[in-house]
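Hey,
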Amino acid sequence: MSYTLFIGDRTYSSWSLRGWMLFARFGIGCETRLVDFDTGAVADQLPGMEPARTVPCARTPEGAVIWDSLAMAEELASRHPEAGLWPSDPAARATARSLAAEMHSGFSALRRDCPMNLRVAHSGFQPSEAVLADLARIESVWAFARERFAASGPWLFGAYTAADVFFAPVAARIATYDLAVSEDAQAYVAAHIADPEFRRWRAMGFASGAVLARYAKDLSTRPWPGPAPRLARAVAQGTPENDACPYSGKPVTHLMAMEGRIFGFCNAFCRDKTVADPKAWPRFMALV
């Protein structure tokens, strides 16, 4: 028996991104179940997960329920010390936990005015004084961690930690709304949106879930600032180069065209997540 992780819409649920990254980025296996934000109350879609009412929430192998993302980080760190969720150095670890906790409870103006939406990148957003104050604080704590603990590597403590997980949706917001930050902070944002696990999460958001009008902003759009995907599209006909889905190994039923070649997948989700960002998926790129 393994962990079960309940998440919300990948495009919009910033806390679900954190929960998923705690498992995916540190190689901890789990079964993922998607809660539909347009199908009634979230709590009603969490059978057997009492007292959880929101996502993300996780069930441990022995049946305990964890209904808070920071608690999830700490519990996984306790259960999987080899995974390296927190820095090994005590001073760095204390700082990383402080940063994650501040993100967990703070920056309400940024979170309110700039909801996560990984389907678009906007231009023309005018941040309020409260959002600017949040950004200034974010830049200062990022710089503090980087200067003291990141001798090498793009992350806050050099190697990727749970503190980076908690700031991944912040980086997404800065990228989405084209928020002005320092050159060093922008480099940290760029590391997040180029991260393979982040790219896979974003691609899966395009493959499942509807466009939710309540997250729309009356702003101009621009190209996504992350790595440009190879151009691909779903097709109804063609002869695929592969007989089995690169992810499941099951027979091919759905087709995709890319650069004059046809590839097959076992279902629409496998195809569509690949169409969204082919280079994000190593198993697919092995075919290419």
